[in-house]
Amino acid sequence: MATLARSEIEALLRFVHDASTLERDVAVTPEIVQGLCGLVPNAEIVGYAELDWKRRRTRYLVDGLGTHADPDGDEVYWRLHRQHPVCEYFDRTGDLRPRRISDLVTQREWRARELYVEGYRPFQYDMGLRIPGRPGLTKTFMFRSSRRDFTERDRLVLELLRPHLRVIDETYERRGRLDLHVPLTRREREILGWVEAGKTNPEIAEILWISPLTVRKHLENTYEKLGVRTRTAAVARLRATKAEA
Asked: Cis link prior to 122 (omega < 30° from 0)?
């Protein structure tokens, strides 16, 4: 069974803290991808992609160098995506935990597939994990290597990180859905999104790596801006605004 050293656990905690508190407008940034690369040293390339399968469009794509405008996506991948063992496994089973290609097919079989020849060579080793998205949208972290396969230690690192990556994504999804035509700050929108989800102040504080007192102060500012006095009224205002949209 794979285990982590104390220094590795500390590195994971630093990553989660930094990823949760980084000032940004999207959930996954090049800085976060670079941080993942440091935690999985076997990876030569780390990327994150959001694919809209209904429209066959790449909604968002990022690696350690930056974000990429790629609305039409990679034609080779759209045509041959069912040949990717990990993606096919995710789609078939609904199990989104970290998986290596070598968990599913032999390296010889993978290297013989057209998708590898046309789009992945020389990165014969591949590991992926997904976080849940709305129907028709996939959110996938990708790790690739040409020299050596990923280890059980690498899988454990990503298994431990996956729930935190999901919470970070949910925080930004909820914040992005708030359009109250009121000048709320980024943090106020994040907190109000979690209030709508039924989270208590201590739970929100834990998610966002801030103190419950800070959560309360942000909520007080939000109530004043919305012209309400309670969290129930704030959520009611939020839902009424959504219904009018």
From this structure: yes
End-to-end Cα distance, the chain: 52
- The stretches in the chain having pLDDT less than 70 are 68-74, 178-181, 241-245
Dihedral sign (CA 217, 222, 224, 229): negative
Q: Model pTM?
A: 0.83
| 110: nearest Cα among 126, 99, 94 | 126
**Sign (positive or negative) of CA dihedral 81, 82, 88, 92:** positive
Class of domain 177-244: mainly alpha
pLDDT tens digits along 103-127: 999 999 999 999 999 989 999 999 9
CB count within 10 Å of CB 17 equals 12
Domains of the chain: which residue ranges? 6-166, 177-244
Report the distance separating Cα 109 and Cα 132, nearest Å.
29
CB 167 within 8 A of CB 207: yes
DSSP summary character for residue 103: G
For 6-166, CATH number out of 1.10.3720.10, 3.30.450.40, 3.20.20.210, 3.40.190.10 equals: 3.30.450.40
Q: What are phi and psi of 137, to 5 degrees?
A: -125, 125
Which of 90, 102, 112, 82 minimizes the C-alpha distance to 145? 102
* Long-range contacts of residues 75-83, Cβ cutoff 8 Å, at least 24 apart: 76/115, 76/118, 76/119, 77/115, 77/119, 80/113, 80/114, 80/115, 80/118, 80/119, 81/115, 83/113, 83/114, 83/115, 83/116
Task: Tally the C-alpha atoms within 13 A of residue 147's C-alpha that lie toward its C-beta.
Answer: 5
